[in-house]
Amino acid sequence: MLQTAIWMIFGAVLGAGCGCGALAWAYRLLRSRKRQESLPCLAERLIVLAAAVCGGAIGFYSRAWLPMIFALALLTVGITVAVPDWLCRIIPNPTVLAVFALKLLLIAGALLGIPGVPAFGLLSSLGGMVCCFVIFSLPGLMGKQVGAGDIKLAAAVGFLLGFSGALLAIVCMGVLMLGYCMVQQRMPLLMFLKTNIPMGPFIAAGMVIAYLVPCITL
After folding, report:
1. Other CB atoms within 10 Å distance of the CB of residue 84
2. pTM above 0.85?
């Protein structure tokens, strides 16, 4: 019990640090584009708190340094994706590259036989990338404007998670979008789909959830 509590505390502290770091990184990326927008102070605190809670849960379930650090890195990238897109409808290219970089780390860990690192399946990763690319490109064929950043991010997420993980991420994203519509109350789902709502936060949340769920259920 003591060891579990220690892992949870470490995870929570590191998670809070990741939340702060992600916000700083997101604002820096926006400043590089000459944008000065920022979240309200309360929203920033809630993000850091949520990151701390996620970090504590990650520490509780992983109880190992490498899986915990990777999961926290993924959480950091997810927050960094979400903030600029929510504020300015921007998904900076460095965040998309960071998703690919995380996948390369997983591949290296799998090749080195590091315990706890999932096996690398090239076909699954390519299938996930193609699946996400196609699904997020389809709305453009039906007249709905979809940002290139959304499509690139979705493809990167598909490559990171593999085919089954990509499908889970898409389902999670859809559930979160539906929940957002219910919170809005006056926005039916059809109207939501026709509205220029930033997709980055939902894609990022789906990515993090789809990665963590298999880790928690092991």
Report:
1. 25
2. yes
